[in-house]
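Dear Dr. H.,

I hope your travels went smoothly. While you were away I took the liberty of generating a structure for the chain from your last submission, since the lab meeting agenda had it listed for discussion. I wanted you to have the full record in hand beforehand rather than looking at slides cold. The sequence, exactly as received, is reproduced here:
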Amino acid sequence: MSNDNRNLQTTGGQAVTKASPKPEVSLMTSLASFTPIEISRQKELTDSVYINLLTLQKNLTLEVAATASTVAQVTQVHGEQTVAKLVCAILKLFNDGLNTTLQMGARQLLEYANIWTETFSNETIKDLILCLKRVKAGRYGPIFNRVDGTVISDFFRKYLEEKADWLADSKVKLKAQQAKSGNDLLTVLSTATDNVEAKQQLEKIRKLTLKGKLLKTPVIDYGPYKSDATYTKFIGENAQTIAFEDLIDVKKRAKAQNLEEVYDIATAEINRRATQLDQEYRDYKNEGVTNTPQ
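The corresponding predicted structure, in token form, is as follows:
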């Protein structure tokens, strides 16, 4: 069978193209037979690893990178060894692609891979890929004649500043979309002539309003703190005033960092708000809609 037809099957005389595996899966498969130190010691990455990394970074956007699974989540599913392999391969691609005199050796590369995964466990592996791709394009300044962990960390923190700006902008756009949705519902409601339709639209507005009550809370800067004890105390005292989406983030980070008390506090507050929302909505439905909107 020719290469062109290798990924085709025939069904009833029609050719059906097999779905190609995701680049992430292909990359992990190509790294499966190596240990992290073996990857670090390779004179150059194997063709399959190299091609899979290039495929993964091609057309990678900040939105995709920022919303991917975090290092902690990938570690939980695939294990520390797999994450170490991935980060070593990414760093080696960057290290080998530069014409600098002072580059990282195999042991330096492996050590920094471990340092990076510990330091940035709440970021994503795709963040690292996109960051290093942008560094090569000169986005964060010139690369001088040295590459080591300190240099990469400095570049990555510049990337995180850009990521934070994108997240803040996305949050503003989301709230604007929510407001627009409410206005659109009111427009439909104002022209509704059928009472059933009016009730349906009122219920939608009610849900949107209650959701807004959960989100419309003061912005709280909940980190970083000098110690877990201080952080836990702060969350305990301010849980009821932290924005709902930030509270979910607190819960995720607490789980990843094994902060059980913070995790319990965040979970309890999320459940309390969900119960309150559910009760308010049930009360509304029990009251019924008796008045026609003006």
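Two observations you may find useful: Residues 92 and 119 are 19 Å apart (CA to CA). The chain is about 65% helix and 5% strand.

With kind regards,
E. W.
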